[in-house]
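ok new one. same drill as before - structure tokens go in, u give me an amino acid for every spot. 477 of them this time. try not to just spam alanines like last time pls lmao
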């Protein structure tokens, strides 16, 4: 069930969409006009059984149709709903129309009919903001027809796939994404979610179980997809990306416009901070943290109890260098690679003490690639998330240190050269000014000399007068 909104009119409701399934697993699309939505919406809930009467059947037309059916139904004022008990009739909860290879070419860049796609999760990208402020995450799957394809998950759908939530030893992760559009770029087919899309992970159906068996022989590692707008760099370069000391990390004033930032620090683990524990219990479907209620683990995301909860690492470590100390958080995939064992193997219900295997990390020194988010950048909190860990390479560290010294010297030399150039310009300006002053002084001298000669001539002319008159004239001068 989902809403169709008019984005050109501030998200005004157009109609409410539903998909019904019957006992023969036939699917049909239904719509309720916006004037009737208040009448029916609160009477309907996903997964419930209904007997429906008094609706209209019309031909399916237009774009973004969630099913390939020829017809759809429309609710009318006189449509009646009667909720049925679960035991009344055996009807499956879910139904799909999965895309097949022979239909792909017909639907590429054609938004008339949307497509359901299913496959084994192989890669997860970052949740990023793109043009226009839209948020998305790319994932890759190995489809049920054994082709690797990318799916772009828009908006909140992308939040379901944090890379750290998937690990190697949990078996294949089967993903179903409904109502997608299909694109073909440079020969590569990709899918993109719409407002009608829903995502199902490891759904409990016979078909999904068969896919789990099919993909169980394939490597189940989930790779991190690099951002398309970021140039790939080698691990040797990555371990020095925006390198900081811990003191610099803690004292840096971050721009309020910055939403995410990657950097690296080098440090030694001094302590395992067990204030918040070293693990968490997660949902087997969405991998969110579970809450224990009345002795039963419940998932607020799936709104259901979890019969087979998973144990995953979330380790807080104290790390120091020569300048300061801070706290980092290591999640499951990185912790597992460091410890070479799964969290469930160390978990003991009788104690929350830190296992000796985790304590053995103390004293070890690594380079950490940190992913700073709004929690760190805006609010200034520590507990920085570790996105990657590198073993120390002292040769590279020494080369980087020498490069810093060289760059520092070159910077100082450039500053000195700039200062010398500035001093030369100032000295040149002073020389020009002094020469100008001297020239002006010389002109004044010649001018005054000329006046003196002229005055002298006048005095000599008056020399024939008596001394008294001459003296008086001189005084007047």
């Amino acid at each position: 069930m989902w809403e169709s909104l008019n984005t050109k009119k501030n998200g005004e409701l157009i109609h409410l969409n539903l998909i019904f399934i019957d006992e023969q697993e036939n699917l049909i699309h239904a719509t309720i006009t916006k004037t009737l939505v208040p009448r029916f919406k609160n009477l309907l809930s996903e997964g419930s059984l209904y007997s429906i009467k008094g609706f209209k059947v019309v031909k399916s037309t237009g774009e973004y149709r969630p099913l390939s059916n020829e017809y759809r139904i429309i609710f009318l004022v006189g449509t009646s709903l009667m909720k049925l008990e679960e035991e009344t009739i055996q009807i499956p909860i879910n139904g799909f129309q999965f895309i097949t290879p022979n239909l792909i070419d017909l639907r590429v860049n054609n938004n008339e009919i949307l497509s359901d796609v299913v496959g084994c999760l192989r890669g997860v990208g970052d949740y990023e903001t793109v043009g226009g402020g839209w948020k998305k995450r790319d994932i890759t799957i190995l489809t049920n027809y054994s082709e690797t394809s990318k799916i772009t998950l828009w908006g909140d759908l992308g939040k379901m796939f944090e890379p750290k939530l998937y690990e190697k030893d949990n078996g294949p992760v089967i993903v179903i994404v409904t109502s997608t559009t299909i694109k073909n770029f440079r020969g590569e087919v990709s899918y993109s979610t719409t407002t009608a899309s829903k995502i199902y992970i490891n759904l409990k159906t016979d078909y999904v179980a068969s896919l789990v068996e099919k993909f169980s022989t394939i490597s189940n590692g989930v790779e991190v997809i690099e951002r398309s707008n970021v140039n790939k760099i080698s691990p040797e370069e990555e371990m020095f990306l925006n390198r900081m000391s811990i003191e610099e990390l803690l004292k840096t004033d971050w721009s309020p416009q910055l939403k995410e930032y990657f950097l690296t620090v080098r440090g030694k683990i001094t302590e395992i901070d067990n204030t918040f524990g070293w693990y968490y219990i997660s949902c087997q479907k969405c991998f969110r943290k579970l809450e224990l209620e009345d002795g039963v683990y419940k998932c607020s995301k799936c709104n259901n109890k979890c019969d087979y909860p998973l144990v995953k690492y979330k380790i807080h470590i104290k790390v120091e260098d020569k300048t300061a100390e801070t706290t980092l958080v290591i999640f499951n995939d990185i912790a597992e690679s460091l410890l070479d064992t799964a969290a469930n193997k160390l978990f003991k219900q009788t104690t929350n003490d830190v296992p000796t295997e985790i304590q053995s990390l103390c004293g070890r020194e690594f380079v950490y690639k940190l992913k700073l988010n709004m929690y760190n950048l805006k609010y200034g909190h520590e507990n920085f998330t570790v996105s990657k860990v590198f073993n120390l390479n002292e040769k590279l560290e020494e080369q980087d240190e020498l490069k810093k010294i060289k760059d520092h010297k070159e910077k100082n030399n450039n500053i000195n050269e700039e200062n010398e150039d500035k001093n030369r310009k100032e000295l040149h300006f002073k020389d020009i000014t002094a020469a100008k002053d001297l020239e002006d002084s010389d002109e004044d001298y010649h001018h005054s000399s000329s006046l003196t000669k002229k005055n002298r001539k006048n005095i000599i002319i008056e020399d024939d007068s008596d001394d008294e008159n001459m003296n008086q004239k001189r005084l007047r001068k």
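Residues 447-477 have pLDDT under 50 and may be disordered. and btw The CA atoms of residues 313 and 335 lie 7 Å apart.
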